[in-house]
Design brief:
Blueprint lengths: L3 H15 L1 H8 L4 H15 L10 H14 L3 H10 L7 H15 L1 H20 L1
Length: about 130
């Protein structure tokens, strides 16, 4: 089990980047196994965002975007596209990242990432 201070910092970062509504849907479960799994994910995945050091929250967001696109995890990529502004990523930086993804991960990954970015932006305009 992660230390409480570390888990609290990771939880705060997760909420900062993804927003309360998203996090609440996953952490407010009556199922103890789901709660334990969410604490594990928060500690592992979001704990790395709170390490300090030379990477900013913006930098970490860009890295996660690139990695999820490279892995073809478009659902997670879309989630992080939606959250990227809260992490400090500007729209122009996200557009430029698409070129990096296409160049280093291949055209299919770049096309899928570009499509996902456009879909997320369209949803954001609608709301």
């Amino acid at each position: 089990m992660p230390e409480k201070d570390s888990l609290d910092a990771a939880s705060a970062m997760r909420r900062h980047v993804l927003g309360d509504a998203y996090v609440d849907r996953y952490v407010e479960s009556p199922n103890p196994a789901t709660i334990e799994f969410q604490e594990y994910l928060t500690s592992m995945a979001w704990g790395v965002w709170t390490r300090g050091g030379p990477l900013t929250t913006r930098d970490r967001s860009l890295v996660v975007l690139a990695m999820t696109a490279a892995l073809g995890r478009m659902e997670e990529f879309a989630l992080h596209v939606e959250a990227s502004g809260r992490a400090g990523v500007r729209s122009a930086e996200l557009d430029e990242l698409l070129f990096q993804i296409a160049a280093y991960c291949g055209a299919p990954a770049g096309v899928a990432a570009n499509r996902t970015v456009q879909e997320v932006r369209a949803r954001q305009v609608e709301t």
